[in-house]
């Protein structure tokens, strides 16, 4: 059976600056990686050197047939000191954008993907009431310089992840950054040392991944809304949204109330933020099943990914349908992927996910694109370089790229905007 997608459907893949560019040494994540007792298994270092190799990388994506490249502009590079903006960094990202157009690839930009400037911690980090204006000013500077080259933008990536992490780690009384295990988070002293590297104290140290209490969520809402206003005032034709990480929340008998509360926490409480957005960025990797006593773990026979997630590509369409019940703006899949060394499973993950999207389209749900996570095997935060999410393998000794079959598979779909589902 052949599934045909809309002709203007966005087909591509995604990256994050800190995970691929390398040497993002002015960021808070860089500081956390450096200190003794750090929960990061290894330092990001030069990553996959995409900051240097972006021209070759974009050309490679184009040769595969991919049509869209989602990447982040790093705030820490653009504004290395409060109120001082780097023309060198701006020129770099201008060239990245222009290189996309040279290869007929549509750029899709995230203004923030987890990492923030170190200096922000000196002002109280993301708990500071000044953050909305500081972030809006950063967006204003970027869009005055580069806005005409940016047709799609996420103000922030996975705004709901801090709440998901808070619920996961409540039992130990800490709110850890993305992907950090319980034992690592309790390692003594590392957070205080990271604060020092940022020129701050531990009581000032409040990263993006701690945005989960009522006060900081209010700051988050203001930040998105002010950033959107700043962007639209300069480039009204740029389509603006944000993204959320959304597992397919399911329940068995007796788990209905818990599942409903999880969905409210993960998604519904954020709806006021996006009322004036142009699209919604939906990101899905697996499902979560709840019973009367909380989350139910996958069966012993279930296939798990390198991240410990259940292999469940059907979750994508399930989440799309749930989200579509609550919003009236278009949906773009801004991340969907799997960490595995078995690339044939990645192909199957993509195939089943897209088959589910096609059924949603047939039912009239407005879906505008699919961006796979991720373009490359890259730095996966505290897991270092041990997780393989990429369509393209990278030998970090030589930085040589090696195309996987999944990249060719998705590229062929992008070329024809159709999926042959055997």
TrEMBL record:
Molecular function terms from GO: beta-glucosidase activity
Mark the transmembrane ranges: none
UniProt superkingdom: Bacteria
GO BP, sorted A to Z: carbohydrate catabolic process
Q: Which species is this UniProt entry from?
A: Niallia taxi
Family the entry assigns: Belongs to the glycosyl hydrolase 1 family.
Positions the record marks as coiled coil are none
What Pfam families is this protein classified in?
A: Glyco_hydro_1 (PF00232)
Keyword list, A-Z: Glycosidase, Hydrolase
SUPFAM superfamilies under this entry?
(Trans)glycosidases
Which Gene Ontology cellular component terms are annotated? cytosol
Q: What is this protein called?
A: Glycoside hydrolase family 1 protein
């Amino acid at each position: 059976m052949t599934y045909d997608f809309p002709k203007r459907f966005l087909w591509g893949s995604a990256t994050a600056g800190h995970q691929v560019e390398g040497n993002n040494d002015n960021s808070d994540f860089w500081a956390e990686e450096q200190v003794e007792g750090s929960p990061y298994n290894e330092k990001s270092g030069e990553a996959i050197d995409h900051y240097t190799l972006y021209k070759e990388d974009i050309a490679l994506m184009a040769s595969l047939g991919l049509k869209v490249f989602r990447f982040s502009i790093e705030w820490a590079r653009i504004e290395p000191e409060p109120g001082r903006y780097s023309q060198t960094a701006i020129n770099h990202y201008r060239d990245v954008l222009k290189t996309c157009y040279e290869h007929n690839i549509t750029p899709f930009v995230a203004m923030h993907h987890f990492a923030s400037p170190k200096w922000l911690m000196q002002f109280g980090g993301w708990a500071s009431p000044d953050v909305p204006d500081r972030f809006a000013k950063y967006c204003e500077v970027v869009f005055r310089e580069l806005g005409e080259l940016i047709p799609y933008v996420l103000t922030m990536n996975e705004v709901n992840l801090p709440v998901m992490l808070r619920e996961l780690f409540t039992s130990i009384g800490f709110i850890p950054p993305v992907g950090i295990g319980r034992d690592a988070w309790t390692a003594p002293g590392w957070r205080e040392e990271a604060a020092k590297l940022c020129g701050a104290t531990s009581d000032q140290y409040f990263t993006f991944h701690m945005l989960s209490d009522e006060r900081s969520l209010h700051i988050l809402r203001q930040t998105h809304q002010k950033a959107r206003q700043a962007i639209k005032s300069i480039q009204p034709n740029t389509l603006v949204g944000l993204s959320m990480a959304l597992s397919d929340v399911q329940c068995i008998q007796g788990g209905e109330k818990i599942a409903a509360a999880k969905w409210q926490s993960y998604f519904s409480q954020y709806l006021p933020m996006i009322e004036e957005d142009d699209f919604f960025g939906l990101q899905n990797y697996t499902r979560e099943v709840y019973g009367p006593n909380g989350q139910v773990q996958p069966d012993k026979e279930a296939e798990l990914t390198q991240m410990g997630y259940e292999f469940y590509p059907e979750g994508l369409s399930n989440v799309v349908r749930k989200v579509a019940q609550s919003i009236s703006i278009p949906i773009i899949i801004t991340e969907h992927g799997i960490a595995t060394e078995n690339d044939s499973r990645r192909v199957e993950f993509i195939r089943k996910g897209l088959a589910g999207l096609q059924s949603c389209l047939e039912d009239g749900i407005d879906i505008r694109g699919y961006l796979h996570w991720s373009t490359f095997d890259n730095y996966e935060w505290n897991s270092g370089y041990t997780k393989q999410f990429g369509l393209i393998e990278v030998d970090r000794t030589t930085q040589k790229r090696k195309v996987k079959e999944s990249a060719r598979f998705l590229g062929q779909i992008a070329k024809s905007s159709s999926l042959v589902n055997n």
